[in-house]
Design brief:
Two copies of one chain form a homodimer.
Chain A: H1 2-10, H2 14-25, H3 29-42, E1 46-52, H4 58-71, E2 76-82, E3 108-114, H5 124-135, E4 140-146, H6 150-158, E5 161-166, H7 173-181, E6 187-190, H8 198-214, H9 220-223, E7 230-232, H10 241-258, H11 260-288, H12 292-301, H13 307-319
Parallel strand pairs in A: 1-4, 1-5, 2-3, 2-4, 5-6, 6-7
Helix pairs in contact in A: 1-2, 1-3, 2-3, 2-5, 3-5, 4-10, 7-8, 12-13
């Protein structure tokens, strides 16, 4: 059944995509086999991260970008990562519902993802979903991440190009940029550019970019050849979206010319291996030693042991056949 | 040397704390032995997470809380997690420098932490630093996290009590709350409460709290007994900090009465075991099979293999003695 699912998926069949994602969500062994069959095809896709603080208008921009890429015939996959509650496991979709207007379009596939309860901002399933969509022929993948923090550092390791969306009026826009997020962006979109203060925000970002590319921490090789552009847009009215697309394409060209794309693909693969190792280890502990973690936690909580000793004991048990 | 370092640390000696943190930072084996010796003492500490968007005034609030806890004789440890650049490894301290006025006070220990480049918002070293400070007799530990995102979900698993700081004027304050961050807070601080819109923000949060505690996703057991209070404060002027402290103490009382504190201590231990297992696995791969991850990444990037197959191959090699 898996072989034919892989074929249907590679042919871009919608039902096959949904089924593949479900298999992977359920950690079904058939999903693992499937991933192996489709992985090579998936490496062709270009992943664009769209990130920024809540309220910056990321979802609206994603919606407009879908429109723009569709207009030139590209098939577009979207993975939107929600911060989820560790308690309910639920995810609040918010205005992402707006994107549903693309639901009828066979050239668009949108998937909302909860970040999982385990350590690691972008869940392993995010990588899997990108793989599935890429293999199904969605060569442009938009990865929307909510919030500003660790997720944004990770989006940079998953995406080929990262666009950081900033809105004026959020008093903290530039402070956010200073807080380290700056360095992960290949492109800045000052959204809601019809609002007061937009020009100022754009100017401040340009100054930060200039400072960065001459600062002590800059990588001369990269910084010398790619200076993150700042694009003004009003996503809600579809204004200047073309300029965003031009900047995204320019970065894709740069990646290819500089050989950066190969390096990034390798980094992504490395990350995926580490994630897979962790998932495998967690699953093996759960299967072979159910309750071992709970017992370890109990001993530690009562002061009878410490985490590293318990970790080593569990790993030793795992190594015995 | 380790035994005496542990003794000096348990006695609260400053130089021993700094040395212990350095050992752990360097992943020195002596640090691992040390942790084992001090872990039981560390379980006594109370960890308070202070979180919120950039610009909400978290650092200023932390500064005031140090003052308040010191006034009643408590020893206070602070771990501030910076979003770090994956490129420079650097961390921008920003207004955290303000806290340096406590540098002369022997009852205060402040440590700025970079989030590490590896997957996982709060680095393993964050847990280690909290352990060291707790063992050194800092019974009140403030964990300041920057940003809104996955970090905030994790702070909830590390901290006993999480205070979410919100400032009016940041247009996205309430939208941030809706984006799932809401559910991790035990307490809301509307900071900069002298600014226009503060009352409205507080009212909106109270409505969200009320909705949450009756909503479908609520856990009747907990939600029925602890309703997150909303406290107005002006941290920069030290106004109403007492009310924040009262609310923090009330939550600590609640945790003890309900037995939640025992459960949380177990969860924290469980997380620490998982982290230690991962760190151990990563270190073993690096030591025994240097280059294995890079070679795997190369095969995957060229479409010759897939991450799970490579992960399994590496794990198989590890299991051979």
């Amino acid at each position: 059944v898996t072989a034919s699912l892989a074929q249907r998926l590679l042919a871009g069949e919608r039902a096959a995509i949904a089924r593949a994602i479900r298999l992977l969500d359920d950690a079904d062994p058939a999903g693992i086999d499937l991933l192996r069959d489709i992985y090579p095809a998936a490496t062709q896709a270009r992943v664009v991260g769209i990130t920024g603080a809540p309220g910056s208008g990321k979802s609206t921009l994603v919606d407009r970008l879908i429109e723009a890429f569709r207009a030139r015939g590209e098939r577009v996959g979207v993975a939107a990562v929600d911060p989820s509650s560790p308690f309910t496991g639920g995810a609040i979709l918010g205005d992402r519902i707006r994107m549903q207007r693309h639901a009828e379009d066979d050239g668009v596939f949108i998937r909302s993802l909860a970040t999982r309860g385990h350590l690691g901002g972008l869940s392993a399933s995010t990588l899997d979903v990108l793989t599935v969509l890429g293999a199904a022929g969605f060569r442009t993948l938009l990865l929307e991440t909510v919030g500003v923090g660790q997720d944004e550092v990770e989006v940079n390791r998953v995406a080929d190009t990262v666009a950081l969306v900033v809105a004026p009026g959020a008093g903290d826009a530039v402070q956010t940029l200073k807080a380290g997020v700056m360095e992960i962006a290949h492109l800045f979109v000052v959204n809601k550019a019809d609002r007061p203060g937009a020009d100022e925000v754009a100017r401040e970002i340009e100054q930060l970019v200039a400072f960065q590319s001459h600062g002590p921490g800059s990588d001369a090789g990269d910084a010398g050849t790619w200076t993150p552009p700042v694009v003004m847009a009003v996503a809600v009215e579809g204004r200047n979206i073309d300029a965003v697309v031009v900047a995204l394409d320019a970065h894709a060209d740069y990646l290819q010319r500089s050989g950066e794309d190969v390096r990034r693909r390798r980094d992504r693969a490395r990350l995926a291996v580490l994630e897979a190792m962790r998932a495998k280890m967690d699953a093996e502990v759960a299967a072979r030693f159910p309750g071992a973690l709970d017992q370890a936690a109990e001993r530690i909580a009562t002061g009878a042991s410490d985490p590293r000793a318990e970790a080593e004991a569990i790993l030793r048990s795992l190594n015995k056949p």
